[in-house]
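Materials and Methods. Structural model of Gamma-secretase-activating protein. The 852-residue sequence of Gamma-secretase-activating protein from Ceratotherium simum simum was retrieved and submitted for structure prediction as follows.
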Amino acid sequence: MALRLVADFDLRKDVLPWLRAQRTAAAGARGGGAGILENNYESLRVLNVERNGNIIYTYKDDKGNVVFGLCDCRTRQNEHLYTFEKDLQVVSCSVNSERTLLAASLVQSTKEGRRNELQPGSKCLTLLVEIHPVNNVKVLKAVDSYIWVQFLYPHVEGHPLPENHLLLISEEKYIEQFHIQVIQEDGNRVVIKNSGHLPKERVAEDFVWAQWDMSEQRLYYIDLKKSRSILKCIQFYADENFNLMFEAPLDILLNDSGFNLVNFGCADLQNQEKLSKHLTLCVFTNHTGSLCVCYSPKFDSWEQITYSVFYFHKGYSKTFTAALESADSYVTKGITFLNLDYYVAVYLPGHFLHLLSIQHPDLICHSLFLSGNTEVVDMLPHSPLQSLSGSLVLDWCSGKLYRALLNQSYLLQFLWNTRLDCEKMAVLHCVLSCGRDSRFLEAKIIQWISETISSCHSFDLIQEFIIASSYWSIYPETSNIDKLLPYSSVLTWNTEIPGITLVTEEIALPLMKVHSFKGYWEKLNSNLEYVKYSEPHLLYNNSVVRREWHNLISEEKTGERRSVVYVRSILDNAVKVISNLEARRLEPRLTPLFQEEDNHQRLLMGLMVSELKDHLLRHLQGVEKKRIDQMVLDYVSKLLDLICQILETSWTKHNLHPCILHFHRRASAAEFAVFHIMTRILEATNSLFLPLPPGFHTLHTILGVHCLPLHNLLHYIDNGVLLLTETAVTRLMKDLDNTEKNEKLKFSIIVRLPPLIGQKICRLWDHPMSSNIISRNHVKRLLQNYKKQPRSSVIDKSSCSVEFLPLNYFIEILTDIESSSQVLYSFEGHDNVDAKFVEEAALKHTTMLLGL
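The predicted structure was written out as C-alpha cells:
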C-alpha cells in the first residue's frame, strides 16, 4: 500500500473501555445499571479535534441524554465534560484550551415531533457552558439555521488566558467572533464575566464555502463577487486581533445558494450517500510556504473524473482527467484529498490513487498515478475521510484518527516491480522525500539501481538518484533552496502517463493584504515574489565550473598557471569537502578511493564549492555566510558520498578484493560487472560535470585494462571514457613484463599520455622503446629553438664510433648545441640524457627495425 495510516486515536479502543468501566462503577454504587448501554454504543462518535490534539466525542446514555467527553491525546485519559438532560442531536462542539468552557450547538432530535423544549420556536440552540465546575449555561444563539462553533487556540504557554475567543459559523453565511472574559471565584471556580453582554464582531459574511485550519488558526472562505469566486484567508492571533491575509480569484463554478464547511467538526448532518454528487474543495499548506487549493467538481460521467490543483505558490493550476478502469464501475464515493506535507494524495476508492508533488509539480513524471490494482487503490477506508492539519486524517464513521504517511517499504517494493519509467521516476522521489532513515533508503535504492540500471530508457537512473538524493539531504534546512538547487536531472517530459491527461494553466497570484510577514506568510510571500520577479533560470548548474576547469587544465598543459593563491584556495575547498565527507563516515572504505591526489578532480571539486557558494550567497537572502558555507560543503560531500556508495555496493555484492589493482591476473565476471557500473557512473557525472572521488579514474582504468581487448581499451581511452592517470600507468609498467602482447599494450598507453606524465613513465620501462621516446623528446627540446650555423663539411671520423655519416652529422649538431648552451638536459631518472644517449638509442632502434 503506497499510503500507510497509523492510528493516533480509535474511539472504540481509547474511549469505550473507559465508558464501560464508568458504567460498571456507577452500577456497583447504585446497585443497578447506569451510564451508556451496550445498544447505545452506536451513538458514540467524534465531534471535533482541537488544536492541541484533544478529541471531543459524544454519546447518549440509557436515558437518551446527550453526554460530552474529551480524550487527552497526550495522556490518553478520558474526561466527562457535560451532560444535556434532553434528547438532542449535536451539530457542533468545542472546548477552550483550559477546559473551563464548552460551546455546543444542538437541534431537536429528529425522532421527536416537537421543537426544542429549551427554546421554543427555534430549530438550533447554541449554548456556552461553564464546566469548571459545571455551573451556568448561556444561550448564544437560538435560530432556525444551523450553527457551528469553534474556540480559538492561541500560541500561548503558561497561565490561563483571561479572555477566550469563540467563532460562530452560521448556515445564514456569516461568521462571528465572541470575546469571552472569565474570572475565578471561590478558589478555582471559573465563571464568565459579564455573561449578559458578550462582545462580538463579524469576521466574514456572504460566503459559500469555508474551511478551518485548526493547527495554524486560519479561516479560509470563498465569497462570490459578480459570479466570480474569491478565496480569502483570515489569520487569528494570540490576542483578539485577526487579519485578512490575502484574496485570490478561483476559476471554479460555485452556486450562490450553496453552503459547504470543511473541518468545522463532524459532518454527520451532511448526507454522505450523496457525496459523489457534490464538489470537493479544500486548501492545503505546509511549512515551506506552499498554498494549494484542491478541487473536484460534481460528477457528470462514470467513465472519467476531473480534479484540479491550484498551485498558488507556483502561479499555475493543473487539471487532471483520470479514466476510470471500466464504464460500469459505479462511483459510490467522492474524491478524497489528503495532505501529506510534500505531497497531496487524490484518492477515489476502488479506482485510483494520485500522489501529486507540491514543491515540484512542473513535470507530471514527478507525481505518482496508481490505478487498476485493487491492492493499490483500496488501501484506505471507503468511508468519508477528512484531512486535518499535519497529515492527520479523520474517519468520521469509525471514529479513528490516523496519521497518513508514505509507505516506504511498499514504495521500495513497487520500485522493483514497476516497468514504467514515469513510475520509477515518481516513486524514486516519493521514497527520498520521506526523509526517515535516509541511509537505509539510499542503500535500498542503490541496490535496485545496480540490478535494473539498463531497464530505464527515459532518463539516467544514477544521475537522477544523485541529484534527487543530494537535494533532499539539504532541502529541509533552508527555505527557497528548492528554487536554487536542481531537484531532478530531467528538465522536460513529453511521454504520456497511462490513464491520465493533464492541462496546465497560469493563474492570478494571491493579492497579499498585509505588508509585514512572519513565519509561513513570509515564506508564501517569498514564493509569490519569486514567481513575479525572479529570473527564469535560477537553478544551479555547473556550466561556469566546466568552463573554468577547462581553462585551468589548459593552463597546466601550457605551463601558464594563474595566481598560485587562487589555485591553492580552490584546492583547499576540495580538502574541506573530503574532510567533511570522511568525518561523517562510520565504517572503513572497501574501495581504493581517496588514496591519491588526483588534482584534476580536486580542482573540479573545489571549483564547484566556490561557484555554488557564490550562487547561494547571491540569491539566498537573510542566511548567514557561515551557514551557506557548511550547506555547500554538505551538498558536494553528499554528491561524492552517493557515488562512493554506489561503487561500494557493487564492490561488496561481487566480493572484490584489492588484489584487482594488480595487472598480472585475468579479469573475472565480477570485475566486468563493477567496470560496467563505473562506466555508467562516469556517463552520469560527465553530462552534469560533477566531480568524482579521487582515485576513481585509476580504478576504472585498471578494470578497463583487465576487462577489455586492446582495440576496445584504446577506443575507450581515445574517446575519453577511460582517463590515463599517473598512478594507473605506473602500476601497469611495473606489473607487466615485456612479452610481445604487453609491449604492444605499454607502447599504446605511453603514446597516449600527456607529455609531462609520459616523461615520468618512460623511465619506469627498461626497454629500447622507452629510450627511443626519451631520445625523441630530448631532440625535440634541443632543436625547437635551433638556428642553423655555417659549419665545416669535414667530419672528424676519429671521434665517431659508427661509420654512418647521417647519424654522425646529426649527433655532432646535438653535441654542439649542448656545449654552446652549456646546459645538460637531464631527464628525470637519467643522469646523462645527452647526444651520446640519443646516438645509442638510435642505433638500438635501427637494429630492432632491421631485425639484426
